[in-house]
Design brief:
mainly alpha; about 85% helix
Length: about 250
């Protein structure tokens, strides 16, 4: 059963990414949804889980401090190391690619952690594992959209190599889709303490808050009407909220 769930996470992420590739001409709407989905994952999934896992050892202030640390780390990487202006500004394509790789890599690591969560929850009981798996599956589709969106966004000015850009996005999509499978399999060989997992989740919560609010959200409505993209962002938040509530986590 656990292996079937791992395969389902692969399929869910892959379908989300293929959706983003198919509707590239509506990328600003996809980015708007992705921004809401990423922020929704941070607020409704990662942060509550981090607080719950750290309960008894860390207070809420310490957990939120780790969240802020994650935000600052991503801020430094984004602004001081991989800085670039908007997509329609003049910028060396290698810088765009590096930024896309950073975001996609972060999503892949998060997906790996999703797999770890499923596997560790399954070690507690199959019932708990199924509840966590439902929550992961519901936002893996958005993870696929986010991965492709980040790569296409940061290579969108390379119109002469559109096919290469799509191939690069597909390669990263396969990495992201494979990550939760590897995470599930990894739990067969070791067990991560819940307290450490809580801190890791808090750190990635900060990453995702920055990624959604400071990167995807501004780009989603840059040079585009804001009404539809705003609705898509709200929809992204709402979908993740409902998914986590329905999953009971």
């Amino acid at each position: 059963m656990l292996i079937l769930i791992a395969i389902a996470t692969f399929c869910s992420t892959l379908l989300g990414g293929l959706f983003a590739l198919r509707f590239k001409d509506k990328l600003h709407l996809i980015l708007g949804f992705s921004a809401g989905a990423v922020v929704g994952v941070a607020f409704f999934d990662l942060l509550p889980e981090a607080i719950n896992l750290g309960r008894g050892l860390y207070d809420a202030t310490f957990i939120t401090t780790i969240v802020a640390l994650g935000f600052i780390i991503y801020l430094i990487l984004d602004r001081l190391i991989l800085f670039h202006p908007h997509l329609d500004d003049d910028c060396h394509n290698e810088r765009h690619q590096q930024r896309g790789w950073l975001g996609a890599g972060t999503l892949a690591v998060h997906s790996f952690l999703d797999g770890l969560i499923i596997g560790l929850a399954w070690q507690v009981s199959s019932a708990v594992g199924l509840i966590v798996a439902v929550a992961v599956l519901t936002h893996d589709f958005s993870d696929g959209i986010n991965t492709v969106g980040l790569i296409l966004k940061n290579t969108a000015n390379d119109s002469a190599n559109l096919s290469a850009s799509k191939k690069r996005a597909l390669n990263w999509l396969l990495v992201d889709a494979s990550a939760p499978v590897l995470g599930v399999l990894a739990t067969l060989f070791f067990q991560l303490p819940e307290t450490a997992l809580g801190l890791i989740l808090a750190l990635f919560c900060g990453f995702f808050l920055y990624l959604g609010a400071s990167d995807l959200l501004p780009e989603s409505h840059h040079a585009h009407p804001t009404r539809l993209t705003t609705l898509m962002t709200i929809l992204g938040v709402a979908v993740l909220y409902l998914a986590v509530k329905l999953a009971g986590v």
